[in-house]
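One chain given next:
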Amino acid sequence: MKRILQTLAALAALGAVGGAAVVFGGLYNVSAREGHWSITPWVLHTTFRNSVELRAPAQSEVPDLTQAGMVALGAKHFDGGCKTCHAGPGEERWAVPTAMVPHPPHIVEAVGSWAPNELHWIVDEGVKMSGMPYWPAERTDDIWPVVAFLQRVDDMAAGEYDALTLHPPAPEGAPDDLPYCAMCHGVSGLSNNPLIPRLDIQPQAYLEQTLQAYADGERESGIMHVAATRVSSEALMELAAWFAEQDVAASAETEAADPDLIATGEALATNGTRDVPACTACHGPKADQPRAASFPRLAGQSETFLAQQLRLWRSGVRGGGDTSNLMTKSAQDLTDDDIAALSAWYATQVPTKPLSAQ
């Protein structure tokens, strides 16, 4: 037994000496040109797959990836954050990614046979030693549109991808960065995607503080944090002013609105308590106190977007702004039915800006 222990100790010492020689002596060639040993890619990929399968969220957590707007929103984020390395559907990668070790696979190859819950984990967590970053926000529900897009890349033609990621031309006198924002929000701030908030109804002060909160990471969203940090603070303020100056378009009312649901939503929105003011006191549609310019206007906003935000407030994930504690308190006791009613009522209201912001 003693001889065995001595042998193991000697082997450990030799291993330590060999490791030190590699680390401190520079014996291992880190050149990307030389690549890995032939067995290394297999070891890394096998470890990667098993790690993802172990840690991915349950399949039951996957939402409906076919709901309106999911693929389009995911494509837009992919175009700005992922396309550089993985290329878009129907496109070829450029020279730099193919020279990386390991090289980022084309997006069709990268998606491969991964299930939606596994893709969510990969996008959320990133991959060590591969150049793929983790999702830049604690909030992870906005990863699902990216997953919805990834599920479509295998049969998506380049023309369809181009249509989803089109940058509309900017009108004369518009901020230089408007085409980038308009890809999602439209030139006037009114998007036809129910997952994307309309900006044409918002006062400038609110837009300024919101864009800065996204850029600083004070308001959670991996999509908007990336978007807001692609331009300077000065450009963000120019964009806020542009959208605030746009005429308010007519509301696209909720389809087949349930009158009982609308009535319930109105009662919830207009009745406050001693601790929580009525929604309408800050968010309109009739509020016009001087402070109203610092709060988002909700009348005519997308029903889908409103419901999503209320769920985020209820869960404590939604941040940003000076009234975060009040909004979290206001939403914490809302049921799913309450959220549906509030969202439906506000979506059917005539959109206006407060007089102080017009």
User: Anything to note?
Assistant: The chain is about 50% helix and 0% strand. The radius of gyration is 25 Å. The mean pLDDT is 90. The first helix runs from residue 2 to 25.
